[in-house]
Give the backbone structure.
Amino acid sequence: MTKTRVLIVDDAIFMRNMIKDIFHDDQFEIVGEAANGVEAVEKYKELKPDLVTMDIVMPFKSGIEATKEILALDKNALIVMCSALGQESLVMEAIEAGAADFVVKPFKPDDVHKVVQKVLSGRVAPT
Amino acid sequence: MDMSKYRALFVEESREHVSELSRLLVEVEASAAPGPLIDEIFRHAHSIKGMAGSMGYEPITALAHRMEDVVDIYRRSAAPIAKDAIDRLLRAVDVLSQYVECIAAERPLEPNYELVRELSALAESGGAAAVAAVAASPSASAPEASGAAATTGRPAAAPPPGLEVGRQALGTDAAPMPIPGAPARIESKLVRVRISDTSSAPAVRAFLVHRRLAELGQIIESRPGIEQLRSGQLADLEVTFVVPIALDEASVRRVLSNVPDVESVTFAPLESIEPVGRATSKGATVEPEGVKNVSTVRVRTEVLDGLINSVGELFIARERLQILLADIARPDVRAALDGLSGRIREIHDQVMAVRMMPMRTLTDRYPRLVRDLGRTLKKDIDFEVVGGDIELDRAILDSLDSVFIHTLRNAVDHGIEEPLERAARQKPVSGKITVSAARDRDMVLVAVEDDGGGLDPDTLRRAAVDKGLMSAREAEELSARECYFLICNPGFSTKKVVSDLSGRGVGMDAVRSKIESLGGTLDIESEVGRRTRFTFRLPLTLAIVPVLLVEAGRWLFAIPVAKVVSVREKGEDVIPQAGGRFYLSFRHALVPVTEVSAVLKLDLQPGVRLDQVVVIEDGRDLSGIAVSRIVGYHEVVVKPLGDPLDRLEWFSGAAILGDGQPILILDVQRALRQRGAV
């Protein structure tokens, strides 16, 4: 069974570590990390992951901008937005830009797994 | 006919009707004699229907008409209105409210077929029986159940009256009606999607569902609409979509099965909607409002604020005249000036009277709020307002709304226990929350009291230590009352699950600051396991305030007289403490006094003696501030401090004296509270 390759994008190191722990699983392989929108796009191009977790508010380039750019490069990219409470309108903007789904911080590992499973199965099934 | 000038009036009056409907529906639920209340509810719905009919606002007319029908059943049968019917009527009131705001913002109205349908079913089946059937339909095997409810003798071809959608040819300013989707007859069905209540952002989730569905096929209509979802509105976790009948159900289920937090997807038929090109006849005529007994005038609040400002300036001008004329020994001039003073005072009092509004204008909305909160948290709440007629300055009332809402949320969420716990404590199943207001000299005392679990000083002490706010020993030394005030510390929350409703414990800190910025004080009392009471002492008015002018060397300040209990000379028999503090014997108690120079970190000239003590009340405690001279009593017009001066925590405002000198008004409680930190 091939592992799902994940790119983690968040400007806070502890957040990235927490997400890494959540994906610490036989099913996933964490192939890279990025700390801002610019790095996110670069790493995406370099690594072509199966899934991206994307923070919204980041320096240099926001998660929304990065999402738009990545989807322009690869319209099948699977991007899950990680937002804080109160950023609902930004999440909706990201969804309109084409993000696959979202989780709201503080998130429990189960929430993230649930979202990720659904997102992945949605992509596998024929449309 | 130019409808636009009527629009403002329509909006204003409809807002009042809507607010009354909300209040009355909650009241009638608990009332033992619902008859007259039901009549009132009927009249309000009827009025809205009439006004909307004459303005051509078809969706409002349709909804109000159905509400009328439902209420009429209960009016004639004299039966009390069932809880589920009240829920639906309240939901209809919410939709009406949204419609009214759309009219105000000149946005188009979206017809709400589902709600109109539900109310029709309620009315047609004559009340209680229909409620059971319609309530059962959404989550059960939807197609059969709603099919049954829908075929109650209505011909399939003609849409029910009130469901016609079209352009009312009432002149160019008529509000435009959206005509759904395709030009000709559209065969449609409903898709109801229920969002899981564990979703952390239900409106966003619904938005995503909307998008996924839209990728699959046409969405003719959705309730809530996409704009409402975008603004975060999602009442009862459900979205209903009107889609073409051809949309494949299996595809919909498949797509939505890959969306997290979707609890259920159900399909239901909807009769075809025929957009009508002709102007439909108005079903309702404008009926005159019941004759009002008292003639009233509506005044915009900006006009009132302008009036109060002008009166304030008049006051200042009078003070100036007073000073300029002080040297003139002409009794006739003095008499004229006194006469002028009298007239100014009268105008001030009258404008203040206009600005004063009964607390009821705020509290009338709260029974609904508490009811909804209670239903959400599955707690039964008995809510009462005492003294709603007490009047407060409207500016204070505006600021109080958020204070009340937060305190009430706290009471429902943290205060009142779950029913099982209450039973174990031998308390009545319904938690009791009371908002009361009473006058005390020139202050108003407003209290929010609940008979819930109370505040436990020990729990609060432990939490304070755990959060690193203080050491265990310091926590031990806190009195019970000081423990209660710990909850006003930002970031302090002993609730293990941070609830959506009351947030992260930021609230009580904001509440206290707000009360104090209005010139008032907050007091907290509690008995563990029995009750908690929050008391706000507020000044009656903000604008013109009597103050005591005091001096500290060459510095001049004002202290609001309302806070001042007495003025004493320092004398010999004081108990000195460190840091410019001492204890003064006053009314058989020792009052802690701080020198103003210590509080405000002033540099005073040598030789200035701070031996005049102004004793003030801080809630129920007394404390004192020592100054060098009491200058006198003045009435001043308080001007709020703007940025950046409003960051000075010790001052609650500024004023201009008659001689043109600006002075700062000392917020004595806050200043003295700093003394611990100094």
Q: What stands out?
A: Chain A has one domain: 4-124. Chain A has a mean pLDDT of 88. The first strand of chain A starts at residue 4 and ends at 9.
